[in-house]
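Example 3.2
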Amino acid sequence: MDWNTVIQILHHIGSGIPLFLAAVTALALARLVFIRSTSFDSGKELFDNPNPAYAVAFGGFLLGAGLALSGTFFGGRGDADFEAVRNLALEAALVVALLRVSILINDRFILRSFCIAKEISEDRNLGVGFCVAGSSIACGVILNGALSGYSKDFIHGLRDAVLFWLVAQFFLVVACAAYRKIMRYDVHRLIEYDDNTAVGIGFGGFLVAMGIALRSALIHSGKGGLGAELAISGFLALMAAGLLVSVNTLALRLLFPKTDYEDEVEMNGNVAVAAIAACVTISAALFLASIVQRIPTQ
């Protein structure tokens, strides 16, 4: 490697530092939004009387924000420094707002049978914490894909990102409903009344996996007309969701051939088994994403 190559690498890294600093600032903003817009007393939950359920939910939100914000770097390196930072700041504000909405969607549509804030703050329910974390991470991954698309200008890019995010959120809710149907146990009841952490880990892992699968339907979208692109992404999202729900059931059977996964989670609350199953589900989603992922047209 010669000095010219070294200089080029250093220049490339140096040109990205303003974007890096802007993204870190946006992550701090995401932290502030979570603290100020939820009913939790962050100081009490983290320091006065440490609450693991709150920490898992809060940490998942920040990780989701980080994953989404990394998508704001897409296409920004070719702009002038001020323009790139300005665009990233606007995209970051949108990301933080949509991530906050994702928790409302989780509360209203995914874990609709009980109050998330009460379960985390009063009951210190780790199962709910993992579900909220999984939903936030899934939303972050989805936004990462939505922000990687192509639009004719920056403003249209923001509009398109919101539209593709909405499509993916719809399929996320549908896939979660399908997940609850195929499981022999009542996911909501076990999480709410039994404080079953294992069920929460399994469900949260599925949410993350679903986010990865849905991202594959959004990546590099937008080169054609908006209507056609939304239709293509919707079709790919439906296919990815269906494949993941089907493959997840098969994977659990193959993973634990001598043990009934659902019995271990429902009856024994086996966190170890649930954690392994969640990791395998996420791995399966990565495999599916490599198959479903859109290839940009030339």
